[in-house]
Write a structure and sequence with these properties.
By secondary structure, the protein is an all-alpha fold. The chain is 62% helix and 2% strand. The chain folds into 3 domains: 203 residues, MFS general substrate transporter like domains (Growth Hormone, Chain: A, Up-down Bundle); 69 residues, no CATH class; 220 residues, MFS general substrate transporter like domains (Growth Hormone, Chain: A). InterPro entries: MFS_dom (IPR020846), MFS_sugar_transport-like (IPR005828), MFS_trans_sf (IPR036259).
């Protein structure tokens, strides 16, 4: 008997869980906007050197006048980084070529640049330039609900104030602090969902919740297209978090967390509230404090210990899980953002490309749902990574002039990395025990943040060898795919609440010496 049995007694996946999961998932509609915002706010519009007193007067019909001031690059388009030292009026009537202008003297853009406002009215490139581990530790100390509410508020305030940034440095500071709150929202929302739903509903809930993020990618394209100004886009995708902040006070704190932190009476009140909302008011009399603590006797005893990030690595099974998850999280994020944050390279309208990249997630995640339900987490995780790697590798051999084929393969690869993300959030929440779940999720998801930071930097390798970025992205996904098969399966298995639960499932009859040493250390903590 455990907490999962109490959940079944108060209605299983009832009215409360439906409302709870829906309210927690709605902010996911704008989480894609936070993660992929730079595609539009930092998009690089077409530009050329500013020509004082002349460029400002140019319009689309008079664009040919630029030929007198701006040389052509290798693709016969106006150079972005140089201009003629003196006006070359004779070039206006000449047929564009390199031979008739190759000997003319040029200089750098001394007065800055003029930007094309067709695709972006304003971006930080044209205007301004002229996280998670900490929040996870806090949520283990102050609770999932409290940190989630604070994360909503921080994201709403700092995200909105980002639009007022007067310089690039200020912009980066605001985005950094906003990114911390994004991690707080995602990780605490996942835990609050997982810890209030029955075992059999976890797969369906996890997948459906991820569809909010998927639809949010398409919303981002619509918002960015309609506004085309980075300041207005920031306000549009951050202001709604004030609404999420106000309704988040309705959430119920995780009863598991409350019991494990010596607040069993509060946990009982939340259980009674859930029972009433689910139409099981009679259970408020049957489930007493004694019943609750008897169901979670081992967990209550374990709660007297102090857990840190080092406990993720002290025992064999926890160490294996943590090391494997670090690689899987890094590679999933690395490949995902390597594809998703460079939409301009595909030569397709950036807004249309964002919609396509979002739409492909629907079939990909439906496939993931079926695989998660019937094949399990481990096979799904490994397969999604290996398939995405194979697609990335395949794109290396497609000629650059076959743009449609290259784009289709990139979209397919992005779909499978999205499915991998869906799986890893669910998988990680099921692998780590309640006493250290948030710490564990924060620890391994930090690797995802590192992966997302490293992904754009790898694109620089394109200058050495065009295929090199794809080789790096694909190689990372292959490695992580095979490592994912080393993780224990969690399909239809109740959530572990203590580290002992995790170790016993791995080796129920013969615990390793390191487990016994760890137990003695925790016993001393309890005695003191």
């Amino acid at each position: 008997m455990g907490f999962a049995d109490l959940l079944d007694e108060v209605g299983g996946f009832g009215r409360f869980q439906m409302i709870h999961v829906t309210l927690l998932s709605i902010p996911g509609l704008l989480m894609a906007s936070q993660n992929l915002l730079n595609n539009f706010t930092a998009g690089v519009p077409e530009h050329h050197c500013r020509i004082p007193n002349i460029t400002a007067a140019l319009n689309e019909s008079a664009a040919a006048l630029l030929r007198a001031f701006i040389p052509l690059d290798s693709s016969l388009t106006p150079s972005r980084c140089s201009r003629y030292t003196d006006a070359q009026w004779h070039l206006i009537t000449d047929k564009p070529s390199h031979t008739n202008a190759s000997d003319l003297q040029t200089e750098a853009c001394a007065e800055g640049w003029t930007y094309d406002k067709t695709e972006f009215i304003s971006s930080i490139v044209s205007e301004v330039i002229s996280e998670s581990g900490l929040y996870s530790l806090f949520s283990c100390r102050f609770g999932r609900k409290g940190m989630l509410i604070w994360s909503y508020f921080q994201l709403a305030v700092l995200g909105t104030f980002t639009a007022l940034s007067p310089s690039y440095v200020v912009y980066c500071i605001f985005r950094f602090l906003t990114g911390m709150s994004v991690s707080g929202v995602i990780l605490n929302a996942v835990s609050l969902k997982v810890e209030w739903i029955p075992t059999k509903a976890r797969t369906l809930v996890g997948t459906i919740s991820s569809f909010f993020f998927t639809f949010g990618q398409m919303i981002l394209a619509g918002v960015a297209y309609s506004l085309k100004d980075w300041r207005k886009i920031h306000v549009a995708v951050c202001l709604p978090f004030f609404a999420f902040f106000f309704y988040s006070w309705w959430y119920s704190e995780s009863a598991r967390w409350l019991v494990l932190n010596g607040r069993s009476e509060e946990a009982l009140k939340h259980l009674h509230r859930v029972a009433k909302i689910n139409g099981k008011p009679e259970m408020t009399e049957k489930i007493t404090l004694e019943v609750l603590e008897s169901h979670m006797q081992k967990e209550v005893q374990s709660s007297k210990s102090i857990y840190t990030v080092f406990d993720l690595l002290k025992t064999p099974t926890m160490r294996k899980i943590s090391m494997c998850l670090m690689v899987v999280w890094f590679s999933t994020s690395f490949a995902y953002y390597g594809l998703a944050m460079d939409l301009q390279k595909f030569g397709v309208n950036i807004y249309l490309m964002q919609i396509i990249f979002g739409a492909v997630d629907f079939p990909a995640k439906l496939v993931a749902l079926l695989m998660l339900s019937f094949l399990g987490r481990r096979i799904t995780q490994g397969t999604c990574l290996l398939v995405s790697a194979s697609v990335i590798f395949a794109n290396i051999f497609v000629p650059k002039d076959m743009q449609i084929t290259r784009t289709a393969l990139a979209v397919l690869g992005k779909g499978f990395t999205s499915a991998s993300f869906t799986c890893i959030y669910l998988f990680t929440g099921e692998l780590y025990p309640t006493v250290i779940r948030q710490t564990g999720m924060g620890f391994v998801s930090t690797m995802a943040r590192i992966g997302s930071m490293a992904a754009p930097a790898v694109l620089i390798l394109d200058e050495i060898l065009p295929a090199l970025p794809s080789i790096v992205y694909g190689g990372s996904a292959v490695l992580a795919g095979f490592i994912a098969f080393l993780l224990p399966e969690t399909l239809d298995i109740p959530l572990p609440d203590t580290i002992e639960d995790v170790e016993e499932k791995s080796n129920p009859h013969h615990p390793s010496p390191s487990v016994n040493i760890w137990r003695r250390q925790k016993l001393k903590q309890i005695q003191h």
